């Protein structure tokens, strides 16, 4: 068993004016890949460093495999780490870099060779074992750092933005590789990124953090589909979720002159404004009007290759709409929009929290 349980972790740095983590609780199940995602400064690295034992919390606990490790030094926690600055040793060949943790543990020669070979195979580094890091590309060096972390077969793997030094294409390739490797190993993994697409693609579950707290934790698609608040909806997804203000009245939602059917659970909001959230891909667009469709005007047309991303104006609101690549779109053209009622989400305009059905 190597679950990781974090309970109510609070950390304020000396000289810091606010809490870097403000009572974070979460559980990474045995063998699970959990991604911590959130904007810069929200406390991801701080949380990871407390799990690693590199930082001591003001209060709260960290347990690994059912054992309280809150005050144990890093080497007694049975974990392995990859950091953003991957810090491989320039004077050592790839073989010695990958096997560093094994050397430290005085693993016998034949076992060293076997394990380094396996890690190198997993990361497609076999042909580079006798090179020095300076003779590798950035992506290869990053793979060496990951190989070095997995070779020790730790029960828990911690990774802080391990792909951050790669260009966009390499990042995409290595992301898929990493998913394959960690899936194969079945290691309990806590992975930090500020890249929402990376979080969605890698995580069994994602924890979206904001201001030192977990805003929402769940399966990537569940969080994407039902953001618990406006922050999460605006952070996950590209483009972010659209938000429009609508007035509830007589069973309808008014956005400017347009009217949508209001779900029953909004009856308590009669006469007040709510925020409607809807994803770009859940809005249909047509050139001709039809009953129940809402007129809007195209402002910007951006081809993404697979689709068109339209910026449209509806009353006072601007929203992003995903149209088929073949849609005849032009700036200033009038179009008609519709969304499946089931795809609409509703938020409290004051607190930003989801209004549950
Ligand atoms: N050593 C430190 N001393 C003082 N304040 C710190 C220290 N490290 C982090 N902080 C502060 O704690 C907060 C959380 O920082 P942290 O590094 O955990 O954020 P992060 O989510 O990892 O951000 P990023 O995505 O930029 O890496 C920030 O406000 C940061 O300025
Ligand atoms: Mg960080």
TrEMBL record:
Ranges of residues in domain ABC transporter: 4-236
Superkingdom classification of source: Bacteria
GO molecular function terms listed in the Swiss-Prot or TrEMBL record: ATP binding
InterPro entries linked: AAA+_ATPase, ABC_transporter-like_ATP-bd, ABC_transporter-like_CS, ABC_transpr_MalK-like, ABC_transpr_MalK/UgpC-like, Mo/tungstate-bd_C_term_dom, NA-bd_OB-fold, OB_MalK-like
Alphabetic keyword roster: ATP-binding, Nucleotide-binding, Transport
CDD domains xrefs: ABC_MalK_N
Keyword set includes Nucleotide-binding: yes
Entry protein name: ABC transporter ATP-binding protein
Organism this protein belongs to: Phytohabitans maris
